[in-house]
Amino acid sequence: MPQPAITLPTTEESDEELMLAYQAGDAGAFDTLYQRHRGRLFRFLVREAGSREAGEEIYQEAWLRLIRQRAQYRVQARFSTYLFRVAHSCLVDHLRRQGRRWQHEEAVPELPEDASCALPTPESEWGRQLDARALAGCMEQLPAEQREVFLLKEEAEMSLGEIAEVTGTNAEAAKSRLRYALKKLRSCLEGLL
Asked: Alpha-carbon distance 167 to 148, whole Å?
């Protein structure tokens, strides 16, 4: 009697494959995408919006817009680029509704990378908080376009080409904005630390 074929799990599905599966009706694919991208997207939006409350609102709108527009999704770039482009659009819409343009309302405390982070010692936590406050203060001084490019590079780990696509610029403009942001942050932090 022949043995039933055993199917071994294949390598992890790409984000693009998961989005196409979600588009075809696989709700589990959406759950996986959400789990993979929620932290980076949330941190990016909170920092860009200037407050946790505004960031949460934009974050929810970005995921809802992704859900509503799933039928229009086409693989033209990495899924993360697409997701951050949707989020960027939601951020701009939110700021327009508020009658503002790229202004921070309050200092945003450092957000943890993951809920499973090890607990720091009091001394290391104090030093980290001082460094985080210094960085947050210096980031507030950056022009909005430079801050956005810096956060997309650092938080979303995007390439310059992907950043250009998300922000609606070209790669040279993204590179220039990142270079100026890094120079200003370095100069600011040297004066504080």
From this structure: 8
